[in-house]
UniProtKB/TrEMBL annotation, chain A:
<dbReference type="InterPro" id="IPR037069">
    <property type="entry name" value="AcylCoA_DH/ox_N_sf"/>
</dbReference>
<dbReference type="Pfam" id="PF02770">
    <property type="entry name" value="Acyl-CoA_dh_M"/>
</dbReference>
<comment type="similarity">
    <text>Belongs to the acyl-CoA dehydrogenase family.</text>
</comment>
<dbReference type="InterPro" id="IPR006091">
    <property type="entry name" value="Acyl-CoA_Oxase/DH_mid-dom"/>
</dbReference>
<keyword id="KW-0285">Flavoprotein</keyword>
<keyword id="KW-0274">FAD</keyword>
<dbReference type="InterPro" id="IPR046373">
    <property type="entry name" value="Acyl-CoA_Oxase/DH_mid-dom_sf"/>
</dbReference>
<protein>
    <submittedName>
        <fullName>Acyl-CoA dehydrogenase</fullName>
    </submittedName>
</protein>
<feature type="domain" description="Acyl-CoA dehydrogenase/oxidase N-terminal">
    <location>
        <begin position="6"/>
        <end position="107"/>
    </location>
</feature>
TrEMBL record, chain B:
<dbReference type="Pfam" id="PF02771">
    <property type="entry name" value="Acyl-CoA_dh_N"/>
</dbReference>
<keyword id="KW-0274">FAD</keyword>
<feature type="domain" description="Acyl-CoA dehydrogenase/oxidase N-terminal">
    <location>
        <begin position="10"/>
        <end position="121"/>
    </location>
</feature>
<dbReference type="InterPro" id="IPR009075">
    <property type="entry name" value="AcylCo_DH/oxidase_C"/>
</dbReference>
<dbReference type="InterPro" id="IPR037069">
    <property type="entry name" value="AcylCoA_DH/ox_N_sf"/>
</dbReference>
<protein>
    <submittedName>
        <fullName>Acyl-CoA/acyl-ACP dehydrogenase</fullName>
    </submittedName>
</protein>
<dbReference type="Pfam" id="PF00441">
    <property type="entry name" value="Acyl-CoA_dh_1"/>
</dbReference>
<dbReference type="InterPro" id="IPR036250">
    <property type="entry name" value="AcylCo_DH-like_C"/>
</dbReference>
<dbReference type="InterPro" id="IPR009100">
    <property type="entry name" value="AcylCoA_DH/oxidase_NM_dom_sf"/>
</dbReference>
């Protein structure tokens, strides 16, 4: 219904009516949402126009050229990349109207209450319990590795509602109010010194049934939407050449000839090629999505980026030699957004270690590629037909 | 960079792929390639005639007004993917890409242009008389030009045994067209059974100067290197697909061995390499077609493709177990081609060295 020129016209009209220089940031963002220019592939009335996703680039280019404020996507990545597509797919009309707008404008930050101390790669084994009491669910349990929990207003949560059926079948998906008095957020300090994530303790948290997403017992299926979007969000970014982790080390190489050695030169060139090829793969994936031919390639993007980020940042620390022995700052901080390439080489090296763990470990992703893309058989399983309460733990 | 290369396949390109694959399925099975490899005629000339003449693929890179099909490197790359998948013993890369590119560089000479038309229409097959290992910009052997004749020896010339015309660089800086009948062409026992090399010896052979060797050879080898990545993609894709198929079928310990994580993870990593290789090969083909960012795209593609294709073939052999070590199983044809390809038109190391200059990451 909407083509590029039509969208360009709409965007220009919108900019004329809401000149960025004369409009408050939040007012601008709310108006942009109401005009359907937030995420054009979403339905009308929910920030979009039902247009092809690829056409968002047309809107973004116009807005950027006009100096318009954005919604600081790195601050609200979990909401945009994971909660929103899940709410859109499984939410009631009321839920969509209540949650999507403040999510997109950044007025309400979201976090993800999925992993638990006893349920990491085997997420479906989770033990946080939700018990029905009247119109509410009462939730008790512990979640972990929760980025942004300390700034989040809402969380997407999966909890066990039926322990007597096999683990994948007894899970339900909820939207959890992080201001509930039963929610306790404790920082979890990382090897970088800071605390980007948290432990979240849930004690008699009450969630109204109207904040359930999808059917009771169908939470595992709903969560797949979240997780698949997470991996696309991590892998599908568009980058210029040297736009990722290879950028800082390449600049150091150029600016500091006294640090160069032949051995590092060989490694740098190999990694530069790998990074450029990974960038092209991401670009190809994006072009497939734009052309409406999504391929299975997305499943592998994060695998490649994790290895590259780790090897490149490791090389950078070595290149720096004596300076590589130093670290910028171990002070415990609580950053509000994730930044893989910010700060110095030592930080990048340590932070990149998480890239092969967060959002699915590389080992689990290799299984997913092998089974879902290549069609190889799964390992024999002993947990499929056993009630969750009878599993070994 | 504001514009990105087109990394997809068009509908026409997919149709071309389908047609080539159909032909190869019918006329280029692994057993036939293997049987032919040890005969005196390792090249399949009837298949070559079918591809080059019957399907008109020899002239893809040549404009229509010069006797060709007026297509681009993107289509030639698709053909090479399929030829790689079948390890087809035909001189497509050497004649329809490398020799053709050399002739395209010699556009001021009437004989050269006539030859270009001959190659494009498959009336003749050509070979650039430069060792297959040579990278664009690298040193190559030049024969002696004397009184209008050429004398000297060039070794390691791929597919020379089936060439009708040789394009020979000489020490006066010229590129000469030499009738193959005027040269002594001796096959060399080659690592790659399906793209055999030959020694070319000229003894006061008559030749026609058709242009300057330097730019023609450089252009030819750059296109060869860039499109070789698509052949390597075809090789890697076949070895991965065939290994996955085999490991789903092969049972040990009362299970398909493809279910063991130790093997699955290796195949998943290989799949990722093939996905990357596809993007790199498409980028190089597109860059050759558009002329934008070509040197970097070709060097990136070769620096990535060479080790990736070798890795895929080596993994295929290992994961097939004992059967992979037999002469009977075709995986060795792919390994030999992949390993030879990793040297052809410059090693990965040579392409990385080129990149060091191109993207300003200079050596100490």
């Amino acid at each position: 219904m909407t083509d590029a020129s039509e969208l360009r016209r709409r965007t220009r009209e919108f900019l004329a009516a809401h000149p960025p220089a004369a409009t408050g940031r939040l007012d601008f963002l709310r108006a942009r949402f109401d005009a359907g220019l937030a995420w054009v592939h979403f339905p009308e009335g929910l920030g979009g126009l039902g247009a092809p996703r690829a056409l968002q680039a047309v809107v973004d280019a116009e807005l950027e050229a006009a100096g318009a404020p954005d919604n600081d996507p790195r601050r609200i990545g979990i909401g945009l990349g994971m909660a929103a597509p899940t709410i859109l797919q499984y939410g009631t009309e009321e839920q969509k109207r209540r949650f999507l707008k403040p999510l997109w404008t950044g007025e309400e930050v979201w976090c993800q209450l999925f992993s638990e101390p006893g349920a990491g790669s085997d997420l479906a084994a989770l033990g946080t319990r939700a018990v029905r009491e009247g119109d509410d669910w009462v939730v008790n349990g512990q979640k972990v590795w929760t980025s942004s929990a300390h700034v989040a207003r809402w969380a997407i949560l999966i909890a066990r509602t039926d322990p007597d059926v096999p683990k994948h079948k007894g899970i339900t998906y909820f939207l959890c109010d992080m201001t509930d008095p039963g929610v306790e957020v404790r920082p979890l300090r990382q090897i970088t010194g800071e605390a980007e994530f948290n432990e979240v303790f849930l004690t008699d948290v009450r969630i109204p049934d109207s904040h359930r997403l999808g059917e009771v017992g169908d939470g595992w299926r709903v969560a797949q939407t979240t997780l698949n979007n997470e991996r696309v969000a991590i892998g599908g970014m568009r980058l210029p050449r040297e736009g990722g982790m290879i950028g800082p080390v390449s600049r150091t190489w150029r600016e500091r000839p006294e640090l160069r050695t032949h051995e590092l030169h060989q490694r740098l060139l190999k990694l530069w090629v790998d990074a450029e090829v990974a960038r092209l793969t991401g670009e190809r994936l994006r072009q497939q999505l734009v052309a409406g031919q999504p391929g299975p390639e997305g499943a592998g993007m994060k695998l490649g980026f994790a290895r590259l980020n780790q090897e490149i940042s490791g090389l950078e620390v070595e290149l720096l030699g004596a300076e590589g022995l130093l670290y910028d700052d171990w002070t415990m901080r609580r950053p509000e957004k994730v930044d893989f390439t910010g700060r110095e080489a030592g930080y990048r090296y340590l932070r990149a270690k998480g890239n092969s763990i967060e959002g699915g470990t590389s080992e689990v992703l290799l299984n997913i590629v092998a089974e879902r893309v290549l069609g190889l058989p799964a390992e024999p399983r002993t947990d499929k037909d056993v009630a969750w309460k009878d599993l070994a733990r | 960079m504001s514009t990105q290369p087109d990394l997809l396949y068009s509908e026409e390109e997919e149709a071309l792929r389908g047609a080539v694959r159909d032909l190869l399925t019918d006329h280029c099975d692994a057993a036939g390639v293997l049987a032919r490899a040890e005969t005196d005629t390792p090249h399949d000339l009837s298949l070559w005639k079918e591809l080059a003449d019957g399907m008109g693929l020899a002239g893809l890179l040549v404009p229509e007004d010069r006797g060709g099909q007026g297509a681009t490197h993107r289509e030639a790359a698709v053909v090479l993917e399929e030829l790689g998948r079948a390890v087809a013993p035909v001189p497509y890369l050497t004649s329809a890409v490398v020799a053709t590119e050399a002739l395209l560089a010699c556009d001021g000479d009437t004989v050269g242009q006539e030859l270009l038309g001959d190659l494009a229409s498959a009336r003749k097959t050509g070979a650039l008389a430069v060792g297959l290992h040579t990278a664009a910009g690298g040193a190559f052997t030049s024969v002696r030009a004397e009184n209008g004749t050429l004398s000297g020896t060039v070794t390691g010339v791929a597919d020379a045994a089936v060439a009708d015309v040789l394009l020979v660089p000489a020490d006066d800086g010229g590129l000469y067209a030499v009738d193959a009948d005027a040269a002594a062409i001796t096959p060399q026992t080659s690592l790659d059974l399906t793209r055999p090399l030959a020694e070319v010896r000229l003894d006061a052979a008559p030749g026609r100067r058709i242009g300057d060797a330097g730019p023609a050879v450089r252009r030819a080898l750059r296109a060869g290197a860039g499109l070789l990545a698509s052949e390597q993609l075809g090789l890697a894709d076949w070895t991965l697909t065939e290994t996955v198929r085999y490991l789903k079928d092969r049972k040990q310990f009362n299970r398909p061995v493809g279910g063991f994580q130790a093997l699955k993870h290796r195949l998943a990593r290989l799949w990722l390499e093939v996905v990357n290789l596809r993007a790199a090969a498409r980028a190089a083909a597109d860059a050759l077609a558009t002329g934008a960012d070509t040197d970097v795209s070709v060097a990136v593609a070769q620096a990535y493709a060479a080790p990736a294709a070798v890795h895929a073939a080596e993994e295929a052999l290992q994961l097939h177990g004992g059967i992979g070590m037999t002469w009977e199983h075709p995986v060795h044809l792919y390994l030999k081609r992949a390993k030879a390809d990793s040297i052809a038109y410059g090693t990965a190391g040579a392409h990385r060295a080129a990149l060091a200059e191109l993207v300003d990451l200079r050596a100490p």
